[in-house]
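User: I'll paste a sequence; please echo it back and then give the predicted structure.

Assistant: Echoing your sequence first, then the prediction.
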Amino acid sequence: MKVAVVGTGVIGASWTTLFLLHGHEVLACDPAPGAEERLRAAVAADQRRLSFVPDLAEAVADADFVQENGPERPDLKDELFAALDAAAPPGTVLASSSSGLTPSRIQRACTAHPERVLVGHPFNPPHLVPLVEVVPGERTAEAAVETAVRFYRSLGRRPIRLRQELPGHVANRLQAALWREAYSLVERGAASVADIDAAIAHGPGLRWALLGPFLNQHLSGGPGGIAHVLEHLGPPMEEWWADLGTPRLTPALKHAIAEGVDDALAGTTAADLVAERDALLSLLLDAKNRTHHL
């Protein structure tokens, strides 16, 4: 297939790597100065099937699938999708990597074929993390959804289809719920940034990497499963919900979080952290792929 990657920042470069690893031809496009050089430096795959095309219309003219990764600004998305709608073949799916904008908002700019517009939101880095949230808009055709799900599955991804449009989709909303309480704990002085990270990374986060919140909770209920948990631990959980914080990102809280992260890093560079993260992700994914139920 010919896949057009529009926007070649961190997410676009990772998508490009994934598409190339699966044998597709990639036509990449990004108007930023030096974009091609940065893309080629970032792509960890054979680049013989990678072409960088400065003109958007040329990049998508013969594309079988378009993955858009532009900035999260509605005005730029409008401009971008109006151009994509005009230039891409009518049957080509236009998938946005948007982490928060709804597809109905995005497809408003498409006057010709809004039915092929949807959100295909990955998790960073897309060439490693399997999740892709496929979100149709009000005018998205079922055929476009099926095409996107089938395509992402062919890449070894785990697409989930959302049944309702929500700002932030599903996974980002779940993350936001955790971050809200994490920030509140820092604000209250209940725990340090490093200890909060440790509480997740060396505790429930290990199980969450294997099974989701419902199946993990089910297993904690013993023979009675999740029904037992909800019956006997539901009331105290509701009390915890009532005590969860509602922090505001004040300058003082932002400073405390940033300072806490600096302390936790203790001189470790972001590049070293990314390399270690990706190496462990690869090992974990390999183990999961060899385990039938995970």
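The two ends are 29 Å apart (CA to CA). Residues 86 and 112 are 7 Å apart (CA to CA).
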